[in-house]
Please model this.
Amino acid sequence: MPTLPRRALTAAAAALGLVAGSAALWLSGGATAQAATGLPTPDHVIVVVMENHAYSQIIGSSSAPYINNTLKAGGGNLTNSFGITHPSEPNYYALFSGSTQGRTDDSCIAVQSLSAANLGSELLAAGKTWASYNESLPSQGSTTCSSGKYAQKHNPWFGFNNVPLNSAYTFAQFPTDYTTLPKEAFVVPNLCSDMHDCSVSTGDTWIKNNLGAYATWAQTHNSLLVVTFDEDNGSNGNHIATVVYGQHVAPGSSATATYNHYSVLRTLEDLAGLTSHAGNAASASDITGIWN
Model:
């Protein structure tokens, strides 16, 4: 076999070094990008939306012992979490679809009149499962505007033609076998249970009595509970409480960056492994600082 001149050997070694260095840089960049996301891959995520209270009315309040002493103490607290606007309805659309969808009031929307992407449509398109569980909804898939303490304004999924009506369940249909829950779901209490018409204590107790068992189960079954609010009381810059609880959340942790409903939606999409992001969620940041 002929011997290569020293100059050729040197050039070949340099080329190989350059290729190896490039490969290492590429691999390092890929690993760094993956680590930067830092999100778990939960089997189930339940999001509960409460109403019209500022961060300071919930976090640290003796009227909300379950939220503070269990969910916050044992989970992650978003210290700078914000609603998008006022009143309620556009915030629900923002949280579900990354846009207020032009909603500026709490009026009843025409059923399935919107076609924009949203969390429900994205999950279904990706072959994953989605549902909502709505307290006081008269029946599964009912499109009524209001009924007793039920209000459609808190149920944005009814506005979209790419989300099946029958994916909206009554809360009585919330399963007791949590393994049968969808990949991601919203729970919407009625106008009393969500603190809109009734006290902070009433809402806090409702969460404990109706979702406390799920929260405990989530700690050991790769699942999460998210409790957030649509908006504040109108006098605190729309600063709201948002806590995350379950396996993969560091107990007593805090996320101190500024987040809003678009950030929560982006995080929900990424927790589910979705490659698409609805509306303003596409430019939002994932929640960080609470994952173990």
Remarks:
- Residues 44-283 form a domain with the Alkaline Phosphatase, subunit A fold (CATH 3.40.720.10).
- Residues 1-36 have pLDDT under 50 and may be disordered.
- The chain has seven helices and eleven strands.
